[in-house]
Amino acid sequence: MEKMTLREYAKRHKLSFFNVMKMVKAGEVKSIVEDDKEYIILEEDREKEIAEVIANEKSKPLSLEEENELLKKEILMLKKALEKCNRRTTLV
Question: What is the 3-state secondary structure (H, E, C) of the chain?
Fold first, then answer.
């Protein structure tokens, strides 16, 4: 078993950091928190399954309309996350 940060995992699999966070929250990959950092636990058999899923998703062509809708949804989720983050960091 190997552990790596979310960013390293995203770079290795050529995914966005946001998608890796979603995978962790959904329980698709195991993670642990050490020293206020979140690490992904790599298991060889699970990594093969994830690599196959990623390859299948990337090979599936999307129409422009479908891709546009997905991007709109992702933008809305990112805006909500940014607003939440801004509320926590507001200076008083």
Answer: CEEEEHHHHHHHHCCCHHHHHHHHHHCCCEEEEECCEEEEEECHHHHHHHHHHHHHHHHCCCCHHHHHHHHHHHHHHHHHHHHHHHHHCCCC
- Contact by Cβ (8 Å): 20, 10: yes
Quick check: 31 and 41 in contact, CB under 8 A?
Answer: yes
Model confidence pLDDT, tens digit, residues 19-38? 888 888 888 888 888 888 89
The predicted structure's pLDDT at residue 62: 76
26 CB-side CA count, 13 A:
7
In this structure, which amino acid lies at residue 79?
K
Q: Are 3 and 32 in contact (CB under 8 A)?
A: yes
Strand pairing class (2-5; 30-34): unpaired
